């Protein structure tokens, strides 16, 4: 059974992220599953730190992007919006080139909070970073000013 509130497409989400940090860092969503969202990001000059490996902060940005898109698509967007409340990450393997892949899956989908686990792997499927993000589910005001 799908966790998503309503159907959405990779094209529409990738288009919305094209002109912000997601697009600038080369992040793209590549798969929508029944209970997960999968993306990829290049390891290139935009995403590496000075020593040549994938920047840990960029891994966290990738994890938060996957979890935030996921959180937003689980709720009714006419009534709620989600914001990141806390994120943590453990970096377990360096990557110096190619692609990394991330997959966000829910650990908890509550009325006021959601908890997402994000696993980032290299092209061989080896774990690079494990992250967990808590999202707050907020009621939308009737009008934004």
TrEMBL record:
Pfam families: 4HBT. Keywords: Hydrolase. One of its GO terms (molecular function) is 1,4-dihydroxy-2-naphthoyl-CoA thioesterase activity. GO terms for cellular component: cytosol. It comes from the Bacteria. Residues 52-129 form the Thioesterase domain. Gene3D superfamilies: Hotdog Thioesterase. InterPro entries: HotDog_dom_sf, PAAI_dom, Thioestr_dom. Belongs to the thioesterase PaaI family. This is Hotdog fold thioesterase. It comes from Zoogloea dura.
């Amino acid at each position: 059974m799908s966790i998503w509130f309503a159907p959405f497409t990779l094209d529409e989400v990738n288009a919305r992220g094209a002109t912000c940090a997601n697009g600038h860092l080369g992040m793209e969503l590549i798969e929508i599953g029944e209970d997960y969202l999968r993306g990829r990001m290049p390891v290139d000059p935009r995403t590496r730190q000075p020593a040549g490996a994938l920047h840990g902060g960029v891994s966290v940005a990738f994890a938060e992007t996957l979890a935030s898109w996921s959180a937003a698509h689980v709720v009714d967007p006419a009534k709620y919006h989600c914001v990141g409340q806390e994120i943590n990450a453990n970096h377990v393997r360096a990557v110096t080139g190619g692609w990394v892949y991330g997959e966000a899956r829910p650990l908890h989908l509550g009325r006021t909070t959601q908890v997402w686990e994000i696993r980032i792997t290299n092209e061989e499927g080896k774990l690079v970073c494990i992250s967990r993000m808590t999202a707050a589910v907020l009621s939308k005001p009737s009008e934004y000013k």
